[in-house]
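Re-run requested by the PI after the first attempt was lost when the workstation crashed. Everything re-entered from the original request form. Ligand of interest: iron/sulfur cluster.
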Amino acid sequence: KKTDEELIEEINRLRKEKNAVILAHYYQDPKIQDLADFVGDSLDLSRKAAATDADVIVFCGVRFMAEVAKILSPDKKVVLPDMDAGCSLEDSCPPEDFAEFRKKYPDHLCLTYINCSAAVKALSDIIVTSSNAEYIINQIPKDQPLILAPDQHLGGYLAKKTGRDMVLWPGSCIVHERFSEQELIKLKAKHPDAPVAAHPECPEHILRHADHVGSTSSILKYVLDTDAQEFIIATEPHIIHQMEKMAPEKTFIGAPGADGQCNCNDCPFMALNTLEKLVACMENLSPEIEVDEETRQKALAPLNRMLEMSP
Ligand code: 13P
Ligand code: SF4
């Protein structure tokens, strides 16, 4: 079995040899975050993928993110270390059911969270992420009825924040649903000076205790910019790696689950990507993301609308 150092050496060799760029999400293993050319949230990563001049995009994240890279950069080879790296939000929204659902609301503009399949994007009007959704909604006339899919918690949060009525799809993220309100209240009592930063994929009973709600990069920015010694972080705990790197003098406590344990609700899909699989995928340029051209064209339009309407 090779050591991590040997694997990283191989990755560095392959990165040059294949003219590859390695993009990683904040929920990836710290070793992968550290070797990536760029680490970011869903919006940052899609912009990087659209702008790269590398021949190969190695996506260390989940499948829908790699698919977005392929839709925006169809001439690049896009590879993902493990094709099974899915997402519970994507799973909650099968395209056939979504097409039926849309038919019930012919006058509604459909805003779809980027955490979905290319086929669902192809059925949408504008794609949004946690970092641009509010900004995009505020550009849409107030009398325009809206659908927000597939994350009901992000949808509920946005409806409240923007004062808009929205038809929601009942999907959710298994990671952000695992936090316990009761345990969070206990943890806050033990750390009364620690602000709570939460991702909008959390249910309302968690968000109501948050001092800041935002995407992964906005949570990161918040903890760097806020004058506090300790923070409680209600999102996937691997992002704490970046926080500890950027603000080593501060303490970051992951929000607890029902058993009171902190930092233990890893995203099981993100965790499928390992250094070993990363080496193999760069060596073989496989598994490769493919999106049929008709779906790609249809999904590209709402993604481009997102990029045009983003801050
Ligand atoms: P962001 O990084 O865009 O905040 O998304 C979080 C997430 O759940 C990705 O799956
Ligand atoms: Fe999907 Fe949740 Fe994992 Fe993000 S954290 S990839 S939303 S399952």
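Saved to the shared folder this time. The pocket of iron/sulfur cluster (ligand 2) is lined by residues 27, 62, 87-89, 115, 173-175, 201, 236, 267, 269-270 (CB under 6 Å).
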